[in-house]
Amino acid sequence: MRFIKIFAVIFFAMAVLACASPQDKAYKSQEAVNRERLELVEQYKSCMEKAGQDKEKQAGCEQYLKAADALK
Known about the structure:
By secondary structure, this protein is mainly α. 92% of the residues lie in helices and 0% in strands. The longest helix has 50 residues, at 2-51. The chain is rod-shaped and about 80 Å long.
């Protein structure tokens, strides 16, 4: 009887953990994407500050903005 109770507790715990795992993975994945987007936006801002009024350099900075948009 004791073995059955232990087995039931372990089974229940594993079932609860298994259900939460895909959702946790999805949240972590989305968090990583959001971090990457923020990093790209920061790189874009930095690049634009360095470019100043130079249109060619500003055009080169657009790659960061496009990459950030692609991660939406």
